[in-house]
Amino acid sequence: MTNPAANVSAATFAPGPPHAPRILFVPVSGTYGMGEYARSVAIAHAASRRWQGAALRFVLSRAAAYAADAPFPATLGDAEYLSVFDDLLLPIARQYRPEFVLVSAGFDCHHRDPLGGMRVTEAGFTAMTRRLKRLAAECCGGKVVAVLEGGYDLKALADGGRALIDELGRDVDEPIDDTSGNARITPLIDGARRVLSPYWRLA
Hints:
Strand content: 15-25%
CATH architecture: 3-Layer(aba) Sandwich
Oligomer: single chain
């Protein structure tokens, strides 16, 4: 099986027009694989996913595709995901200035999912969607699409999908809570800043 959002990205832009749109590709997931979209062009990828034993890496390809991966240990939840959004994904995305935001909505990071190993709740999916919606409003006139990508618990899929869709239907000026000071995720964020600072301005 392959990821539909990644396939859309690859098919739309290959072999690469002179000015391919800048696409922010955000897999909100528990597990993810590089191979599905490695050949896509003009994709800024800021992933939040579990990747056992891997180091965060930044990839700049000849096709001008950017990849900023945030590998997570298991059992992380809303607070950790949102800290990575606020401290890594969104600062990078605002510098990238996407012309379109494509969300691969994989609900295997839901706390009910038997395989993902994460602890994200419906409130977490709502908060992540709110941030991406606000980003799209700032950068690309609100152009954001979410594609259902997977998950292994039917209730988690239904509840997570409902949270995402409900949030997309709300106004973009809904309040966003502060997520700073999460001790568990701070070492990952600090390491990510060191790796990504040659390419992006990160406080």
